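Researcher: We're teaching a course module on how sequence relates to structure. For the next exercise, students receive a sequence and then see the predicted structure as tokens, so they can try to spot secondary structure elements on their own. Here is the exercise chain.
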Amino acid sequence: MSTRSRAARIAATVVLAGGLLVGTSGCVFITPTATLNYYDPSDGVGATLDQVRVLNMLGIINEAGDEINLITILHNDGPITNVNIQFESDGEKTTVVQPVRGGETVNLGISPEDDAITVRDSGVQAGGLLEVYVQHGDTEGKVLMVPVLDAVGDYADLAPGSLVSE
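Model: And here is the predicted structure for the students to work with:
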């Protein structure tokens, strides 16, 4: 076999191997990796405000449709701060101020031991979105469109007034 034909055969093998490699793994180069995308893994919504994270905020409405238990988790990776949670209740802007120490996670409205935030007569029904503004310190706040759900299934014990200590 001549040197030329050997070189041609090697070149053809390299080109074929390269084509197979690109053809079988090309998607990795053009498709974003889904596991790197942040998402809210539950029914609620979240936001990051500098060092404070608002996690899984959602509303659970009572059977009468006139009160919503606003549920969320606040986590602070920085120094102590006050988190302001603002929404419309009884026809007025209402602000709840929740202090959160550094490294602390605060649950709101999840169990009887938690502070509860009740929204009254907001005009939002089950399946709707409640507008909630969240802010802390000098950080620019964010408006969250919080889903409001019926108190059924896993959420049956989270309706306003149902979080009673035994």
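Model: If you want an answer key for the exercise: The chain has a mean pLDDT of 86. The first helix runs from residue 3 to 30.
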